[in-house]
Amino acid sequence: MRRVAALATLETPGRFPADRKGAMPQYLVTMDLPEAEPDGSLPSIEGLLGTVRETLLPSLEALSALKAQGRVLAGGYPSGQRSIMLIVEADSEEGVLRMLERVPCWDASATDVARLHAFEDLSAERPAGGRPAGGVASLDRAREERGRQGRQDRRHKTGTEPPS
Known about the structure:
The chain is an alpha+beta fold. The chain has helices at 45-68, 93-100, 141-146, 151-154, and strands at 7-11, 26-32, 72-78, 83-89, 110-116, 136-139. It has one domain (23-35, 42-154): Alpha-Beta Plaits, CATH 3.30.70.1060.
């Protein structure tokens, strides 16, 4: 069964597609927010309100400021999911990570960064092995530090399916 999620988003006009000549690379960023406390318990109402006030709202303000600066081109959250998705312009994956480390929800989120390639470039970028050049970096810092599983069980570090 196909799963479709609506993405609530604000776009920056004139900044797409990712194949603009001479422009910085664009990256798709997914920041998954935890569903429970680090010990696995569900938060209390007070704890949930504290998280919203201390982490979520300041994170949305920080991301809105990055959007106003033109560093985040578009972003939002998929309906019914605990994640934030962004299209970011940066010189490298490391540049994306340095920028996101200042967002308050960074420590609590599991973050994936994938470079976007234009559709038109796909056929030109296929090396002999048949896979497009450039990869996906799965940067799941929060889960690695806390020793939690989750997406690591389903995804290989390069963002592809794990080898069988």
